[in-house]
Amino acid sequence: MALRDRFRKFRVVADVGCATGLFGEYLKSIGFDGLYIGIDLSEERLKAAKHKAHASWILIQADAEHLPLRRNSVDLVACITVIHLLDIRNATKEFVRVSRDAIVVTLLKKRLDLEYEILKNLNRFPGLSVKRVTMPKVKDEIFIAYKTIPEVIQPHNQ
After folding, report:
1. How far is the C-alpha of 105 from the C-alpha of 27, rounded, in Å?
2. Measuring CA to CA, which residue among 43, 151, 34, 144 is closest to residue 97?
3. Cβ atoms 16, 78 nearer than 8 A
4. Is the CATH number 3.40.50.150 carried by domain 3-147?
5. d(CA 34, CA 56)
6. Among 41, 48, 71, 151, which residue's Cβ finds the most Cβ atoms within 10 Å?
7. Helices then strands (H, E): number in the chain?
8. CA separation, residue 101 to residues 60, 64, 74, 116 (Å)
9. What is the pLDDT along the chain (158 residues), one digit of tens a residue?
């Protein structure tokens, strides 16, 4: 199943580091009609996102390493070109905690030095299937993690 098709099937998506909501707009353009939760630390960027917001958008000012969401409360956690600004270990732990199905992390090509760190931190969770994907016309590296068991809680080597 193509990534685009899978995105359409999700009912709740959290966009961590949403900035002005570009990923929310992309989801809408491919037919996503679920709940989009945009999370960003910057009040200024959230204000810009609010001008684009659809009725199904919720925008929250919060830290990516302490997400104000319940465990397994969203189908997809997306972190698009923001991971290099975060504490990767703490952020990935939060992504796994709140996601019930999948996590997508993209990394700027100029920050490929962090690839090992991202893979190491996602792979420390038993029950998570992680792969790196390269797509034509996408300039960033994409890491996709799917939960293969319903409850992924504790990472290896905390």
Report:
1. 15
2. 151
3. yes
4. yes
5. 7
6. 41
7. 5, 7
8. 21, 18, 8, 23
9. 566 777 778 999 999 999 999 999 999 999 999 999 999 999 999 999 999 888 999 999 999 999 999 999 999 999 999 999 999 999 999 999 999 999 999 999 899 999 999 999 999 998 899 988 877 777 898 999 998 765 554 554 44
Q: Residue 132: in which H helix or E strand, if any? A: strand 128-133
| Integer Cα distance of 154 and 135 in angstroms | 31
- Residue type present at position 13: V
* Helix ranges restricted to H, 30-157: 43-52, 88-98, 115-123
Provide the token pair at 48. 């810009």
Helix, strand, or coil (residue 133): strand
Domains in the chain: boundaries: 3-147
